[in-house]
Amino acid sequence: MKDALIFGQDNTERIVAVEAGDEVNGSFQIDMFVRDSAGISVVKKDFQPYVYLSDNRSTELTDIKPVQMTELDGTDKFRWRASFKSWTDLQEFRKQLAKQQPDASSSVFWINDPVVLFMLETGITLFKGMAFDDLRRVQIDIETDTEPGYDFCNPSRKGDIILAIGIGDSHGTYTALSSHKDGEKALLKQFVEIIRELDPDVIEGHNIFGFDLPYIEKRASMHRVKLDLGRNNTKMTGRNSRFSVAERTTSFKRFSIPGRHIVDTYFMAQMFDVSSRDIESFSLKSLAKHFGVTPENRVYIEGSKIAESFKTDPEKALRYLEDDIKETRALSDIFSPVY
Prior knowledge:
Strand content: 25-35%
CATH superfamily of the largest domain: Ribonuclease H-like superfamily/Ribonuclease H
Shape: elongated
Helix content: 25-40%
Strand order of the largest sheet: 10-9-8-11-14
CATH topology of the largest domain: Nucleotidyltransferase, domain 5
CATH architecture of the largest domain: 2-Layer Sandwich
Low-confidence stretches: none
Radius of gyration: 23 Å
CATH class of the largest domain: Alpha Beta
Distance between the termini: 20 Å
Mean pLDDT: 95
Largest sheet: 5 strands, mixed
Structural class: alpha+beta
């Protein structure tokens, strides 16, 4: 076995994702997604989430009681581990304790993520026994229209539709979806269907958090299209977050797709540049040139003319979109393996 301190003490291989599952009869479950030659299987594990306490008498102050109290070795502050039947019980315990004990924050140590708690407890880690090429990866990119009189597209404007979505994968296949024939609503529905059919472990894009996913989310909401992009037909969700690297801090909406990972090569390039500090621009085309991964006969269209190109020369516009997909995949090939 490899070093457990680095790779985790559990030997289970080919786990590509771990997610919080359902509460069944009051008990909490964790879903593990395992990729094998037949595809993806889901392994469900019962799990009792836990907090660490400085005083075991804290549990006397709440109606919610732990199912198990464990005294830890040593003399450090948080010597007690309180395990609960469900994530709901754990959260309710914290709320009640905070009301009864003004300094509760200094007497309780907890991690607000059941998946992290589960992986710490079990020693389970992702991608063990897998090569990078074993992952099923998909790249996406969108092109949009802009209403006359405006310089930039805005997903809240009715006419600023998604013109096309490019979808590539790590095997080099490519699909281009266009709203020209059947409209934007049909385009979005087809996008969801293809993602579910391809069933990727990783969805990649360049500035996917800053542009593609927020735009898709807004347009899907306008058309009442459910973005059930996750495994087990679960929906994509998002929350406000910040990305900080070196002197740069970026506010963005962090999206999550259950059972899948989202990789933004725009962010990864910035992390790469912390040590090299020689990247002049983090745009997709500039990065492709910097790393020497520009496709042969790459199609270039000025940003302000892309929408018009879909009307006057759609074949060229779709080749441009495909080259964007190729460059995104090539950049991820460079950045992602170390993670």
